[in-house]
Specification:
The protein is of the alpha/beta class. It is built from 14 helices and 9 strands. 44% of the residues lie in helices and 10% in strands. Strand 2, helix 2 (45-51) and strand 3 form a beta-alpha-beta unit. The protein binds flavin mononucleotide. Flavin mononucleotide binds next to helix 9.
């Protein structure tokens, strides 16, 4: 079974990916948050820096494109191929209102014929193999059948399924039967994503769906960076957690303004990382911090002195709004 770190825009940037890999062995592939190409057809200096392979190398990185325009997709895939990437991922899942209203991300799932035309154009001229990450529809899981029948027409390198509709955002349960339906309809490797928060849920998924080629973990790995290491038989260590966290702080402080940029970024990680510690009101205090110098000592108290839970406590997340109340 291959394990992938899910792309998470604003969170899983280059520093986090590289430090995670250095401190927590086991993740086979790190997916990059989406690139959203414009008609300018030029990578920005910031995008170029994010796309440098660094110690992970091209083989363990998978870049992703979010667009509804075949010409923009093909330009961006070409630029990625030129840099050295051997595969590109198409985003058919982003549920954000502004993205979907423009017909991108999960918005591409609205009309099966339009999706077919888009895929026809991009697969015809793709410079490198294309994999796809998808939701199972916009409003209703029943939409997935027709979507799969369109996907089945193309040589998709691999399909990652987040088995929720766009309406479900990130909350409530997932629809595992949609993953089985994909297996019956497609011949490409299939990777399952969504709510894999504990070693038990990973093991149960592997047992229930032994034909999966991979699992993709997002929030579970933010809350417990050692989750995949543990799934592969390794241990969680406080030293690694502290090392990873403090190296990441150093990287953020070296690259951005402490209070205006580094603090909000670190808070986004802590929305999930706090679930690894018993609820004691610290996260409530952390959320209110306005400066790095108020926030950082609280992180050290948790990381150095508080007990670490056997598994991250995702029951604390409000399942109806799905993503933990933001910083
Ligand atoms: C803050 C945030 C940013 C995300 N950014 C992306 C993205 O850039 N591309 C993408 O395909 N999915 C993105 N996702 C979705 C995740 O990759 C993943 O599918 C989702 O979190 C469900 O998996 P999980 O339950 O393991 O977290 C994002 C999710 C969150 C919460």
């Amino acid at each position: 079974m291959r394990y992938a770190f899910a792309p998470m825009e604003g969170i899983t940037g280059r520093a986090l990916r590289e430090l995670h890999a250095a401190w927590f062995p086991g993740v086979d592939c790190y997916c990059l948050p989406f690139l959203s190409p414009t008609e300018v057809h030029q990578l920005t200096p910031r995008q170029r820096r994010e796309l440098e392979p660094g110690p992970l190398g091209y083989d363990r990185l998978l870049p992703q494109i979010l667009t509804k325009n075949p010409a923009d997709f093909l330009w961006c895939a070409g630029a990625l191929a030129e840099l050295g990437y051997g595969e590109v991922n198409l985003n058919l899942g982003c549920p954000s209102g502004t993205v979907v209203s423009k017909g991108k991300g999960a918005g591409l799932l609205r009309d099966a014929e339009a999706l077919d035309r888009f895929l026809e154009a991009v697969f015809r001229d793709a410079p490198i193999p294309i994999s796809v990450k998808t939701r199972i529809g916009l409003e209703d899981p029943g939409e997935f059948g027709p979507i799969l029948r369109v996907l089945a027409r193309y040589p998709i390198r691999a399909l990652t399924i987040h088995p929720r509709t766009r309406r479900e955002m990130y909350g409530g349960g997932v629809h595992p039967e949609a993953v089985t339906l994909a297996r019956e309809t497609l011949s490409c490797p299939i990777c399952c994503n969504g709510n894999l928060f504990t070693r038990k849920s990973v093991q149960e998924t592997e047992t229930a769906l032994p034909w999966l080629s991979g699992l993709m973990l997002g929030r579970g790995l933010l809350a417990d960076p050692a989750l995949v290491t543990r799934c592969k038989g390794g241990e969680r260590s406080r030293k690694a957690l502290l090392g990873f966290h403090n190296d990441l702080c150093e990287a953020y402080l070296g690259a951005m303004h402490p209070n205006q940029a580094a603090l909000p970024k670190l808070k986004e990680l802590w929305m999930y990382l706090c679930l690894l510690f018993p609820e004691d009101g610290t996260w409530k205090r952390m959320r209110k911090c306005k400066t790095w110098s108020e926030f950082y000592p609280l992180t050290q108290t948790l990381l150095k002195d508080r007990p670490i839970l056997p598994e991250a406590d995702f029951a604390r997340i409000n399942q109806s709004s799905a993503v933990y109340p933001g910083p």
